[in-house]
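re: that chain from earlier
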Amino acid sequence: MPFTTLGLSDPLLRAIADAGYNTPSPIQAQAIPAVLNGHDVLAAAQTGTGKTAGFTLPILHRLSQKSYDKNRPVRCLILTPTRELAAQIGESVSKYGAHLHPRLKSEVVFGGVKINPQMMRLRGGVDILVATPGRLLDLVSQNAVKLDTVETLILDEADRMLDMGFIRDIRKIIAFLPRKRQNLLFSATFSEDIRKLTTGLLVNPIKIEVAPRNTAAELVDQLAYLTNKVSKTALLCHLIKTNNWQQVLVFTTTKHGANRLTEKLNATDIKAAAIHGNKSQGARTSALAGFKSNEIRVLVATDVAARGIDIALLPHVINFELPKVPEDYVHRIGRTGRAGEEGQAISLVSHDEYNALRQVEKLIGKTIKREQIVGFEASEIAPPMPPEPPRGPRPSRSSQPRRPAPQRARS
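^ sequence. v structure.
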């Protein structure tokens, strides 16, 4: 079924052709007609299935078919959990709307950068606003944007927004919206929290579930190397150099761990960069650009920072540490094996992660093949970790000069 059968306008079909697409993905084939017909939508699809175009294209079509106010009030609001995902969606809006006349105005706003330039850009009005929840509330509180004209609300990566504790912000934002509107909720997985959020938000939604619930990407070859925790860094370096991997996305569970691993990789002449919430927006953008252009060989990321990373033909994803939440495993390996291409997801699993591996297997409904590499085998009993370097003596309270007792005021 070609895109021409979905009811999209000619300018949008031109943009789709420019992007090199001919046939819609399953999520696009189901979501586009539903959105065009004005239905609320509850959609679950694996990362990399084309769900961004699944809502971007029909929204551009609907907005372009209507006359617009010269003040350009916000007509479509797209909420995302991270800066990277917001930027990616903004790029999609610009790409697919390139041939529309008149052009629809769009803007992307997120935290981590100065708010004043964003306020200035919003003064001229926008048709489509892509935002992270916290920064949007900041802009609303400063009267930089009004949301009472929103016709369509889109929650993308809704499960991640809930995981990141954005539920209160989302409810605050919804309170600023008109009651009559179209609501679209897209998520990589369905959870009970997602279902609770949809209650009272979606009205008779069209439910779309392209992949079975919490299914890991089908085209991803999944493998677990059993090793000792102390050997993980050396094993990772061995895999990268032996296989001559040139583009590898590595996941850690903490920001500190990401920084430490990046330093160790660079020390072995493997050019690496870290991307996480403590990095400035400029540093994150630079690291991602370097990774996409193959100037950086390894990108080390935390789960939150990796949302929105969209790299064509990314061949390898490495779980340096298994995630604490099994669902995050699905999100992680969804970075590879995208758009019909094969990918490989390798997990480095130490003794303390065996139970986490079993939980992942229970979630995805399949057994992950386990192997060991000579020289990096897991011992029967976990060896002790090397001691942390001493931090230096902490000054005792007794060595601190005592404050004089306060003088009681005389009556």
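The domain at 220-371 is CATH 3.40.50.300 (Rossmann fold).
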